[in-house]
Amino acid sequence: FVPPGWSYEHDMELGRFLYDHSEKELQCGDCIKEHLSSVEVSSELEDCGVAHLTDNQPHTFWESNGPVGKHWVRLNMKKGTIVKKLWLMLNGQCSCYVPRRVAVYGGAPNRLQHLRTVLINENSYQDVCILRDMKTHLPVLEIRILECRDQGYNVRLRGIKIKSFWEWDLILNADMFQPAQLVRYPLLKGVDADVLYRRAVLIQRFIQLLDSVLHYLIPLSEDSTCSFKTLR
């Protein structure tokens, strides 16, 4: 049921509270050190090894040394981590070493599933986000370099960057909604913490359901008869 006196504006404020709460968790610590267990690569050139992917140095890089189209980077994540964003840090010294098309797979080591394929902008030589907003823990993330620019043979990456959080950080409970936490959310002040908790669970469930069907609803092109106004 809708709580007495509740409005759309209350839902918006509760949504902002949940977003702010989750984002605070993401700003803490070094995600590479805290959440990444180990990194494996398909191959490596001497003096350009896997360690350079996480050394956070601007002038070092990993370079593959294997057959074309068979280059990959495998991230073994610590139990309970959920990836918010995953970036490739490109090395633009020579364009033929820059990835043009990459695919991201995730899941258990022996059951990886395709998550996303990304075509990297030809003008990009900086950090490129290749994955975002995962909803569950994936023990392994594998980045497969399908193609390099200018028909390049091997690939160079300056590094990888991750923004992630622990899955238990986002478990909802009524203790989240104590008065001291609601100072910046005036519409929520005075509402029973149990009511806010139940409403938050409902909102999260709705978001999960909407997210699962949203790609069927969004128009694919401007010529589509559907419109965002209709969707709203």
UniProtKB/TrEMBL annotation:
Lineage, opening ranks: Eukaryota, Metazoa, Chordata, Craniata, Vertebrata
Transmembrane intervals: none
Keyword set, alphabetical order: Ligase
SMART domains: APC10 (SM01337)
Gene3D superfamilies cross-referenced by the UniProt entry: Galactose-binding domain-like
Gene transcribed to yield this protein: Hectd3
Domain of life: Eukaryota
SUPFAM superfamilies in UniProt: Galactose-binding domain-like
Domain DOC: 9-189
One GO MF term: ubiquitin-protein transferase activity
Protein name stated in the entry: HECD3 ligase
A Pfam entry, by short name: ANAPC10
